[in-house]
Amino acid sequence: MLSNMPEWVAFKDAARTSSVNVQNLRLIQVAGIDLDISGQVSSPQLTEAARALLAARDFPAMRERLLSGGIANTTEERAAWHTALRAPAAIKEVAQERQRLNAFVRLADSERRWRNIVHIGIGGSDWGVRLTVSAFGYAGTWREVHFVANIDGHAIQGGLAGLDPHDTLIVMASKSFTTAETLQNGQRALEWLQAAGVENPQSHIVAITARPETAKKWGVPEANIFKLWDWVGGRFSMWSAVNLTTALAVSEDVVAGMLAGANAMDNHFAQAPIEQNAPIQMALAGVVNRSVLDYGSLNIAPYDFRLASLVPYVQQLEMESLGKSVDLDGEPVNVPTGPAVWGMPGTDAQHTFFQWLHQGSDGAPVDFIVCQQADHGWPAHHTSLLANCLAQREALLKGKGYDAALQECLDAGMSQEQAAKVARHRVHPGGRPSNLIVLSRLSPYTLGALLAMYEHKVFVQGLIWGINPFDQWGVEYGKVLAKGITAELSGQVQPDNASRDASTAHWVQTFARSLKA
């Protein structure tokens, strides 16, 4: 297990004796991104210990396995080959699906068809598309896009409201094409089309799935089915035909640019030395912060209104991948893994939870993300945005001691007694870790590179912790239980109260009665 590895013990000891050196600029530049890791603990000893730990985990061979399509997802015995989806010289089946998707988009554009798109998917079939459409269509497009993910009937009701069924395309994205939320919402959308008298309503539905035959049996025309593969995990599927909605909403050029940026980061991850490898350095900092310094969470603070959906995207990527407590041999990891990931765009975040980040008893590492150049015409706004980002990070880094706070109070005209009292409330501990990620500007290329950087970071963290970042058995267990409870609430079977806790038994009975009423 990890905790018994001498390389881990050396790494942990080196991390505990390292510190943040605010006078040492540590910058990595790749694919239009400047990654500033100056806010993370560092030392020559930690660098050497990290190198030894990665070697002990057979990092070069495992990285090659990931990038070449070997078995990286060991509990499900399959590859995690999402990098193949963005390779310029794609394998034949990937290239064919790209061509089919582009042909579909070009035909729809030439006919000015599908003024409305309802994208139905959840998790990995939703967040990436939602992010790219909001990032590059934030000011509106000629097509109106609605996203429907939740099983709550209000979601599909709101998603269809006000749309013209005769000019609406329903995009159903589900790798297995058994996802309950997607199938139920898709069925409601089909009924909506039928009720409006749409001729051949199935032709208004597109499916993106690794189970084409299942989608075909559901009623989707074969020509409208785009393929996924078992070696593409759901939370890595945005690089596939799942981005059909993106191409229709903000153009296939956006999709192509994101693929190019992600591929550039793939090449960097494969070739750059450890000290200058952005995903590796982010991963090492993440492991130190979580497993050595005991920070329980990671805050994502994108200082760009267009990147609001980046927070849940990274949240799913990291927490579904790294929310594990046993290693590949089924033994307890025995060190903290996978932090809780949360956040909100700045400057909204400053008026919401930055007080906790600065002076709370726990605090959290922060990934500050900002674009050097804006794409609007109000330079004063961007100046303020940049200033706020840098100022908040600086405050977290250097803090404010009691003497400085006291002098600040005295300078404000307070008496010595009052200043001494108030100054205690103005002390900032400082020394709290952060990354500053600067995009030259928000383009498809830089966003693609940013997302790939986080993906590879997660892979390296999983490797160090000895866990599989490509399965999600915890989620699957809940789905199995939900099927049984659904049958009981629907009256198909009698409630199984003998095998469950008192609270669940009570509410199954209560909800079953209310549903019958």
Layout of helices and strands:
Blueprint: H1 6-16, E1 27-30, E2 33-36, H2 44-56, H3 59-68, E3 71-73, E4 78-79, H4 92-110, E5 116-120, H5 127-136, E6 144-148, H6 153-160, E7 168-173, H7 180-195, E8 205-209, H8 212-218, E9 225-227, H9 244-250, H10 252-271, H11 278-292, E10 297-303, H12 310-322, E11 340-343, H13 354-359, E12 366-371, H14 379-398, H15 402-411, H16 416-423, E13 434-439, H17 444-465, H18 473-489, H19 502-516
Parallel strand pairs: 5-6, 5-7, 7-8, 8-9, 10-11, 10-12, 12-13
Antiparallel strand pairs: 1-2, 2-13, 3-4
Helix pairs in contact: 1-2, 5-9, 9-10, 10-17, 11-17, 12-17, 15-16
Q: If you had to describe this structure to a student in words, what would you say it looks like?
A:
The protein is α/β, with parallel strands linked by helices. The chain folds into three domains: 2-76 and 260-376 and 433-465, Glucose-6-phosphate isomerase like protein, domain 1 (Rossmann fold, 3-Layer(aba) Sandwich); 87-250, 3-Layer(aba) Sandwich (Rossmann fold), CATH 3.40.50.10490; 476-516. Helix content is 48%, strand content 12%. It has 19 helices and 13 strands. The protein has helices at 6-16, 44-56, 59-68, 92-110, 127-136, 153-160, 180-195, 212-218, 244-250, 252-271, 278-292, 310-322, 354-359, 379-398, 402-411, 416-423, 444-465, 473-489, 502-516; strands at 27-30, 33-36, 71-73, 78-79, 116-120, 144-148, 168-173, 205-209, 225-227, 297-303, 340-343, 366-371, 434-439. The chain has a six-stranded mixed beta sheet, sandwiched between helices. β10, α12 (310-322) and β11 form a beta-alpha-beta unit. α1 packs antiparallel against α2, α10 packs across α17 and α15 (402-411) packs across α16 (416-423). The longest helix has 22 residues, at 444-465. The mean pLDDT is 96.
